Amino acid sequence: MKSKVGVYICSCGTNISDNLDFDELVSFTSSLEDVAYAKVHSLFCSEDGKNFLADDIIKESPDRVVIAACSPKEHEKTFRDVLQKAGVNPYLFQMVNIREQVAWVTDDKAAATEKAKAYMRAAVRRVSLNEPLEKKEIACNTDAVVIGAGPAGMESALLLAKAGRKVYLVEKNSFIGGRPARYEDVFPKMECASCMLEPGMDEVLHNEHIELFTCSEVRDITGFLGNFSVKIKKKATYVDKEKCIGCGACYDACPVKVKNEFDYNLSERKAIYVPYTGALPNVPVIDEKNCLRMKGEDVICKEAFDLGLITQEEYEKHKTRECSLCKQACMFDAINYDDKEEIVLKDAGGIIVATGFELFDPAVLFQFGYGKIPEVYTSLEFERVLSQTGPTAGKLLMKDSREPESVAIVHCVGSRDKNHHEYCSGVCCLYALKFARLIKKHLPSISIYHIYADWCVPGKDNQAFLDSVKAEGNIRFIHTSLPMRADIMQEDANINILCTDVSGKKQEIFADMVILCPAMIPSKDTPALSNLLGITKSTDGFFAEGHTKLAPVSSNIEGIYIAGCAQGPKDIQGSVAQGAAAAGQVLSTLVPGRKLELEAASAEIDENSCSGCMTCIGLCPYKAITFDKEKKVSVINAALCKGCGTCVAACPSGSIKGKHFTDQQIFAEIEEVLK
Amino acid sequence: MGFLCNWCSYGGADAAGSQRKNYAPNVRVVRVMCTGRVEPEFVLKAFQSGADGVLILGCHPGDCHYKEGNYKALRRYYLLKKVLSQFGIEEERLRLDWVSATEADKFVDTINDMVATIKALGPLALSNPALAKGVSADFQEDTLV
Amino acid sequence: MSKPKVAFYWCASCGGCEEAVVDLAEDILKVVEAVEFVFWPVAMDFKVKDVEALRDGDIAVSFINGAIRTGEQEHMAKLLRKKSGLVVAFGACAHLGGTPGLANFIDRKTIFDWVYLNAPSVSNPDGILPQQKTMVEEGELTLPEFYDTVCTLDQAIDVDYYLPGCAPPPDLIMKAVEAILSGNLPEKGTVLAPDRALCDSCKRRDTKPEKAVIKEIKRVHEVLLDPVKCFLDQGVICLGPATRDGCGERCINANMPCRGCFGPTSRVVDQGAKFLSGLASIIDANDEQGIKKVIDSIADPAGIFYYYALPASMLRRKR
Fold this sequence. Notes:
Chain B contains four helices and four strands. By secondary structure, chain B is of the alpha/beta class.
């Protein structure tokens, strides 16, 4: 079928017409096959130009349009809108860039004219092969699943809830607040961490739009932006949240004592417990691994009997009796030994991943003595030592309950080290300074040593913080080089620390306590979650952001956002900012009543042509391609396809069509520009 | 012949224009959304249609608008170069490079450098082995020797 | 009414296509019953003059196998075209150039130098090369011109249909014959085979992981091939994803990967380039060094990717 192509050539004032033979271009264009007419204007993008264009298209009713003007990146959208209004499908249109890529870059007028003619010829031929495309729209769910209830996740949840969005907040621990729930004060203003966090935590617990799942994890996810379905596994906790008032009678009654992980094993807890006083939600959980009843009490009695600790009579009496001390102690009948793990399915439009960080295990670097020398702590352990709710109730004491006379703080453990973690965690210097300040507050006459490689204290308050700590006195700063090396050994009652400073001088320090500042690393669930959600990690193991600068909370999958330390090491301020940013992404992408517009120039697999070789599936950066196991063909989800064309180019049997960039269209363009 | 990705290199070419930077006029550009769309067939088509050299320009590694299309282009590029050399086509006639939307100078330098390289190599001059197709009116049935 | 006339001719090919006709077994009797052979040099005693004597278009269909490599082949193809209603390019060589087409990676001079001068088994002290005309006592002897380039049949003449394969399998031959006899023919230019790629019917597809990647390519003699696993997943090149289905997976069943004799699907111009694109796309590396390491493990990529389809490719021959 012959097409009727209308061509409009813009002189762009004289920007174009001055630099090539404009009349020659117009007459050449008019002579091309399929061209019904070629008309000129001095500025098609002006109001006057657009009106002329719209009126003329209505008058002439071409079935395809070519506009030769500036770059399509400048005005393709402008003209597509005009075409749409004038009743021509916006994809039955080609733009010819005769300004940026012809008139402005070629001194030789004749050469410029030839180039413009080649592009014109190509556009006219290509536009005849263009097909009309329609933008499809789909409805979307505007709720969100937030994974992780630390500072970032809580901020996301609170902002979304504030906008009236339903939020499913999934936390693997029994408490919310994340790592900072363990801190006493936070830098640089030495604010009380719990005072800072608690209002938000309280709001999370009571906001009607937030459904909190503690002791829970995401097990599966299907769907795409606006239409996710998330499977959440709620572990059995054996305590009814509705009935429990958090009085603590149950854990007082529990006969079991085990190490408390919340305090990094520096304290003990019961088998039914809240990890620390003030934990929210204030509802205990039963640790089924250690609960006598769950373990089967008779086993314990049998052991005791075998060891001769109890008599046969006592054994017979106790072996069948299951421990129910906590249940007996509970005045509200909140203990339910029959509680079962539960799988809950929730639909959501967006997912925010805020799964936080953990610390590099310094035991790997045996020179630091961690794990062998009792008074060598990691920074998080030391946070607990300082905490009012920690093992020493906020007193600065060693494990033998003595007050230390000297403390050494070692920076950059396992970070800024190519063999371990190349990056700088960016917060260690600041919390190390915070430690110095707090240690002094407890024991003003103590000696403090900072063994550091550089000061990394960016941000508006932090340099002043460093300077003020430095000014306090009784702190020795030992500047070493990278990677951090310090040989830490127990020598009698003291810990001996050997290192070399930047001048090459050997330094020997004696201290009672040593605090290591290990690299912040991705939380251990990161790889599994990466597989589950299909979001990629960067080389350092954290979730990869969409763009380092411009898309810091996007993932590679639309509708899944990352926030806080799951994306990379950062302080609370940075985590909260990203939590807010991720909430903003959900709010602006998923709007109630608004449909999601799908890319019209997407890729499409012809199921009658596809052989099911699956070459394409792993190539899609948006995971838009799946394999239909019944039909044995690959299928592209139009809602996820962005139209990059990678799969189109890779399909060995040519069964994927890249709409608006088909082989035929591009072949035609190549042939014509090279004629 | 140049295949330019919409987001980076086509933008780089536009930037060269906005800054009125002159470069060799004998390059012809086809815009694609991503270098990941550039098929080896497009390159062969360009050579077949008379191009003496082919440039594929895309976003820098890590900067692809579609995350990783440029890596797919890179993989095809090296294999295609090896195949082209088996076809007797000098490797320099196909070049893939990264030009961001702001790198007007790099765009201009890349074009000029490519044009100079191709000029030094001379025209590609593919032999056209097609036989005179069809049976012409003057076909002599009994001319079989 | 007289039976439709049929011709069968052999250009640059191995003869396997002629064998394929014999492979029709009892079905060949149905064919013989239905048609009148007017030219079939390998099986029956006809001369070229018999063909010349026919009226133009008198032959209902000519099946021509083999590529066009010599002047004689080109002439015969043109003669049969003139005398025939339909011409079917029979087999991979006529369709795509076939393995003889791999000679397009070299040229006539290189071939002659080797075959007539330099091969160790050759004794040709006077360095005599084939001549188109040679005078002997009895008169002038002639030989057809040996072309520099191998061409597909449709590069020499207009072709109506293509029967792909090396050689075409009996079921497709019979289907084609039945379609021609019944006049129930598809659009001119159609390849008379399914238009999906081979993976569609390959039993090994189910063993292929959804996200297969290529870490190293091995040649078939370097690896003990698993009899059920996808070849590509074993790191062995198999052109199945880029090759038309319909062959009956004869190679696959013999534990050999596909070499592409059925040519590309209708949606692809250049089979080798398309396969290259798919294969390279799943290389498991993103940096120059890693990519080149994988590519270095592919011996003679052009030779493998264009095993059957070099003359039909976009570049057709080595420059």
